[in-house]
Amino acid sequence: MPNAVEPPSESPTGLEAAYALLADAAGAPWVPLAGGTDLMVQMTGEIGEPPHRVLDIWALDELRGIDVEGHTVRIGALTTYTELRRSSVITDHIPALGEAAATIGAAQIQNRGTIGGNVVNASPAGDTLPVLMAVDARFVLGSSSGERTVGADQFWIGYRKTARRPDELLVRVEIPIVPERRVRFRKIGTRRAQAISKVVVALAWSATKDDAAWTNVRVALGSVAATTVRAPGAERALEGAMPDVGTADAAAAALTNELAPIDDVRSTAAYRRMVAGRVLHRLIRDEGGW
Ligand SMILES: Cc1cc2nc3c(=O)[nH]c(=O)nc-3n(C[C@H](O)[C@H](O)[C@H](O)COP(=O)(O)OP(=O)(O)OC[C@H]3O[C@@H](n4cnc5c(N)ncnc54)[C@H](O)[C@@H]3O)c2cc1C
Asked: Which CATH number goes with the domain that contains 125?
């Protein structure tokens, strides 16, 4: 039954006031509202549990901005996709994140949707998530009792479930700067815009020069499991190897074997496994130049 009553809401203008509301254990939990592009869809109760109290965090400037501190890129949770695409810091250090942002929805969604919303919404089809996993992103969570940091490999703990506690906000995303790291992103959807992904592949590795063996390889995928996942078999096939045809064949075969996606309205499991392997093969081939 759709929820016809608008839930109570608060719009704090400072982080401490927001934390105080979130810490209030009496009554239903406050559900943060950032850009609202996911949460508004749940508001009627027709899709998922509707929020019973809404905490509008859009005015929290502490959650905005992209900068570099030491060897870390810091991205405020309220950073929109448009801001990611326009950021010289992102272009210089993690261009694949800007490419992922460019595939999300269309201009309206990119102007309003935030990286924090994508991360906390925890959809397996969240398009920035594989890139964030491939670059070993860390998520800084804040509450009235302080801040703590959770790595991307520990954050998405189940289908649409995260390690965030109800009294916490995601404050920022931190990405270590690794000088010789390269990252590639590819999304497969039905169209070039307004398409929920069928398969997303992010590939990261370090190489001192173009004809050097790859190290620190990460293969992360979206839309092929209940959460964003790494592909350890494909990573093993690539680690310490040159990006030649034999390596690409082995990595693609390992990936196809280790994935266990589901059939759903967007795609079949067989299609997802086959396409994930082909995409990885193509990404390696593009780097190997053969
Ligand atoms: C038409 C349309 C097209 C879309 N296309 C895509 C697409 O191509 N790819 C894709 O990945 N997604 C897509 N989305 C989904 C959505 O736009 C993104 O997931 C977006 O990043 C959500 O961000 P938001 O700020 O709008 O989050 P909100 O809707 O405000 O929040 C989403 C969830 O995160 C929580 N939350 C948000 N910020 C914080 C925070 N700082 N701390 C704690 N909790 C927080 C909220 O409580 C809520 O549970 C689309 C949505 C629509 C409506």
From this structure: 3.30.465.10
Residues 6+ apart with CB under 8 A from 43: 3, 7, 50, 51
Residue 148 lies in a domain: yes
d(CA 176, CA 73): 6
Q: How many domains does the chain have?
A: 3
Q: What does the pLDDT look like over 178-215, one tens digit per residue? A: 999 999 999 999 887 888 999 999 999 999 888 899 99
Q: Which residue has its alpha carbon closest to ligand 1 atom 21?
A: 118
Pocket of ligand 1 from Cβ distances under 6 Å: 31-39, 41, 57, 63, 77, 104-105, 109, 113-114, 116-118, 120-121, 126-127, 169-170, 194
Both 30 and 66 in a single domain?
no
How far, in Å, is the centroid of ligand 1 from the Cα of 95? 21
Render pLDDT for 39-62 as a digit per residue (tens, 0 to 9).
999 988 877 889 999 999 999 999
In the reported structure, the alpha carbon of residue 126 is separated from the centroid of ligand 1 by a whole-number distance in angstroms of 8
**Which residue's CA is minimally distant from atom 23 of ligand 1?**
117
Query: Which among 69, 61, 75, 40 has a CA at the least distance from the CA of 152?
Result: 75
pTM: 0.97
